[in-house]
Amino acid sequence: MASHKAGNLIKKTKADQVFDVFNILICSLIMLIMVYPLYFTVIVSLSSPEAVASGSVYLWPKGFTLEAYQNVFRNNEIWVGYRNTILYTVANTLYCLGLTIPAAYVLTKKYLPFRGAISWYFFITMYFGGGLIPSYILNKALHLVNTPWIMIVGVGVSCYNLIVTRTFFSSNIPDELYESAYIDGATEWQSFIKIALPLSGSILAVMALFNIVGCWNSYYTAMIYITNQDYWPLQMVLRKILILGETAALSLEEMSKDEQEWAIRQSQMVYTMKYALIFISSAPLLVIYPFVQKHFVKGVMIGSVKG
Length: 307
What we know:
By secondary structure, this protein is mostly helical. 73% of the residues lie in helices and 0% in strands. It has one domain (69-304): MetI-like fold (Orthogonal Bundle). The chain has helices at residues 2-9, 14-45, 49-53, 67-74, 76-106, 115-123, 132-141, 149-153, 159-172, 175-183, 188-196, 201-216, 220-225, 234-247, 257-304.
């Protein structure tokens, strides 16, 4: 009670109050800067193409219409891209976790022969890369070019993810647990599956989230290695629509008046369709993130601080 009364007697000075107001204003401004682009994407996708083209859409939709979303859902290429992206994301995440987690576990074992050399074998990739041309030649020799497999097995182990996971294993799972398991006759695989994995839910969620976000947003690999549009991920379909929006109104002087009006209308429609597709492609990650946020924060903090 006494401490409670003492706490009530402590009053903030004017400087403290000004500082609090200043912090609230700055945080509100940062939040607005972060949220408004997504909000703008939504209101543009719900506005008429004419209102968007006139530049009058700022705070709320004008000429409310779902035409952009109807065009998106009628486009078969978008559904194919969505299917491919989901397939690539799930398969690549499982592939990366299947390589990263066991590798990180093994590198925590002090009795592993040449542990330092093996660690540097991974770490050196953070500083040196083979470059685009050698990578293309290698993937072509492996018959991965222009196949879905380049999106699944093209990238396996991220060295940063490996370091974070290894730090988590070494600093959060006591060696005594492994020693007691070895005394009971457990093998390395049994100690990994029955001890390490069950105690690593937070770091597994973090690594899965890192891989999901990276793979979902990836377009560079597909742009370099995949020419068959049947294998394109959603981001490549979005890129194609963006390019169409920039070129749809070209060479208007060579068209008749009716053709010009049609081309302008198509260009405006592609513009709103672009924003609708941006929102649709971002929606899955926006839905997933709140459910893994607590694991994300916990895993990053625990896996990044030793002790």
